[in-house]
TrEMBL record, chains A, B:
InterPro entries per the UniProt record, alphabetical: CinA, CinA-like_C, CinA_C, Competence-induced_CinA, MoaB/Mog-like_dom_sf, MoaB/Mog_dom
Organism: Pseudonocardia sulfidoxydans NBRC 16205
Gene name of the encoded protein: cinA
Domain of life: Bacteria
Protein name (Swiss-Prot/TrEMBL): CinA-like protein
PANTHER family the record matches: NICOTINAMIDE-NUCLEOTIDE AMIDOHYDROLASE PNCC, NMN AMIDOHYDROLASE-LIKE PROTEIN YFAY
Length: 430, 430
């Protein structure tokens, strides 16, 4: 919906040959994309380029051709021969590299300290210092967070290029200085605010949102609203961005989507199920305990993921074997014999057992067939039984058949359990 | 080391506006890069493009300009209006879209089944079916793994374009069919084998490998070997690729690296610590049980990640509170009072308690300060105590201070525990 053509565009180049062998997943691209979108840019592309000067230059020219006002690069600022971002960006801007004496002294201090710790010194170190203190003529150098300075390089006719180091900690640490650099500040003053709204749904297929958009679009002009959908952690995220002037339409559309799909709504303000579960448990002063079989501890791991979770997570048992279910969570052996280890009865007993053993207010039981083995005709791969019980008598049970690989099924099981906990602790409309 | 210029190049385009708002991290780019590198291609670029036809077309043209012989795209094959990869790739190849009747029937069957289960149906579904069954003239359609078919589109003058769906499960499921498609097979017959070798080390800094490479490079010509290093799951992965003719040098170099860093070697043949732990436990007929505090179930989750893990994972307890440590794993309350919940003593008691309660052969205890709260001067954030004990009397303990955020510390704790289990069950040189 809408091309969002009014927003200035930005592009990202992440460098490093290791990104192109699949050896490593890039963390800087998504991080920078989120920051740039938050500043109001439309991010046109994220491009990964290896440590080859021609490829990096071609990537910069590609982004210039895509009409971006700003390019942010990550990586290639180190002391070794394949660290060549500064040089290539200078060439892209049509200027030469000049030594920055103040920066050289600064880097020398940092490296002296590092050399003392690691035993590295000598001509190789001096050469590295000299190389890292070269700055494209007219560019602004950003103080190092690790050892390498960043750069802000204004190319005549655009785009503005911000050059940042590759290690995520250094890149993120340097970002505030980059955003505060005069040339970047000037550019930002021309960017309209993001006006973004994020809706989350559980159990709603993407095609339903598409149908709603088509229907609403018949009576309203939605061309000023950009709508993106994406499935994440088994939730459908609907992302609305208004172009300047279309803010009211976007708000109205968000309201209509929420109203029409209220049954599946998780949050209308962008909160995650993890945040909502934590809030709900803290709000009621409840603790939660888990009895997991097929998810093998992943639900407990997800619950304690948040800082401060010790206030509401009592603990959990991973009871993979039948003996462990009985010995550690008190699931009657004859119940397992009668109904099978994967059954709604056992899920309930796991929930009650966890609640009892940890003295918790909320118990969660999960038992299922994650596959690839262990299935029967009645209990195929993906059949998972969930139960959430609370001290005040709520019992919520589900036994869906989940799709996908072993990893998918376990991940979706954890997602499903989180939503079931939320419903048990913060019932809709409550 | 070396430009690998002899290899045919490939490019990857991942599509989806959600990749450009930072809402989601792309999993397909790294996966495809690894596959393509494994097939012997040099991957030139991974480009993320939003759901805008112009941007997608420009990305394809950029890759063609970078001299790639093969482009693989992911995403944009769904039923909604912003799913336009098929259409744009048809335009890129200079052909029109034509309905594929057999494919339409196939998709209709799949969607009918899905509609019956979810209760969704009607004109929106018919329209989605029609759209997804459109194929660029002359292209090969690849059978759907989810609902969307893939495509192999041969552009006159190159590159060959393989169009795959966005959900990782569907993309990975369709990959064997894509690689087996006649046009792709023809191209692959011209690609020299990758000759890749992957070495894994634990506890070895990258600079040590760099030093070894410098030293070996003084007496040997290493220009035919491309060496990449990358830190993943706390392991240093060293990836060696030989250009045609340099296979023997690469083998010799791999041998020298392994010999020099034998103390830190995890595997010289690419096996992961997860595989090695599973093999070692199965080989000895051992079962393992966990007593986790700060990692909150993530170690148990990692252990049961593998299919068939019920043969060697007995279970685990997430004992977040002191009461749970005592009640469920028998950690003496006075031990906690004397030494603190985060102490080598409690780690040992957690390991022994888990082993005892689950009747397992190997027990693992983890307790630490994941932060941001809970630290003291003596026990700062990142201080984590590990202990692995076995029924035959082995006791391995560590209490390092790990770096990074809460999530980093928990992840590194799980990695460290996996390596400690491996050492306990399969001692080096045994």
């Amino acid at each position: 919906m809408g091309e969002g053509a009014d927003r200035p565009r930005a592009g990202i180049v992440v460098t490093g040959s290791e990104l192109l062998t699949g050896a490593i997943s890039d963390a800087n691209g998504p991080w920078l994309a989120r920051e740039l979108a938050g500043l109001g840019f439309e991010v046109a592309h994220v491009v990964a380029a290896g440590d080859r000067p021609d490829d990096l230059m071609r990537a910069l020219e590609f982004l210039a051709g895509a009409g971006v006002a700003l390019v942010v690069t990550s990586g290639g600022l180190g002391p070794t021969a394949d660290d060549l971002t500064g040089e290539v960006v200078a060439g892209f801007a049509g200027v030469d590299l000049v030594p920055d004496e103040a920066m050289r002294v600064r880097i020398e201090e940092i490296l002296a300290d590092w050399g003392a710790r690691t035993g590295f010194a000598g001509p190789a170190l001096d050469e590295a210092t000299r190389k890292q203190a070269l700055v494209p003529r007219g560019a602004t150098a950003l103080p190092p967070v690790g050892t390498a300075p960043g750069l802000v390089v204004d190319r005549p006719g655009g785009p503005l290029v911000v050059v940042l180091p590759g290690p995520p900690r250094e890149l993120q640490g340097m970002w505030p200085a980059a955003v505060a650099a005069p040339a970047v500040k000037d550019l930002l003053s021309t960017v309209p605010p993001a006006n973004a709204r994020l809706l989350r749904f559980f159990g709603l297929p993407e095609s339903e949102i598409a149908a709603t958009l088509r229907e609403v679009g018949e009576s309203r002009d939605l061309s000023g609203v950009e709508v993106g959908t994406c499935l994440r952690h088994s939730e459908l995220e609907v992302d609305l961005r208004a172009r300047p002037g279309a803010e009211a339409v976007a708000e109205e559309l968000a309201g209509l989507i929420v109203e029409r799909h209220a049954r599946n709504l998780v949050s209308a303000e962008g909160a995650t199920v993890d945040e909502l579960v934590a809030q709900a448990l803290l709000g009621k002063g409840f603790t939660v305990a888990t009895g997991e079989s097929c998810t093998g501890g992943l639900l407990a791991g997800r619950l304690v993921d948040r800082a401060g979770s010790s206030a509401y997570v009592a603990g959990g048992v991973v009871a993979y074997s039948n003996e462990a279910k009985t010995a550690l969570l008190g699931v009657p052996a004859e119940m397992i014999a009668t109904h099978g280890a994967v059954s709604p009865e056992v899920a309930r007993a796991l929930a009650d057992g966890a609640r009892d053993r940890f003295g918790a207010d909320v118990g969660v039981g999960i038992t299922g067939v994650a596959g690839p083995g262990g299935s029967t005709e009645a209990k195929p791969v993906g059949y998972v039984c969930f139960c959430v019980t609370t001290a005040d008598g709520t019992v919520l049970a589900r036994d869906p058949r989940l799709r996908g690989s072993r990893a998918d099924i376990r991940e979706r099981s954890v997602d499903t359990a989180m939503h079931l906990i939320l419903r048990a602790v913060a019932p809709r409309g409550a």
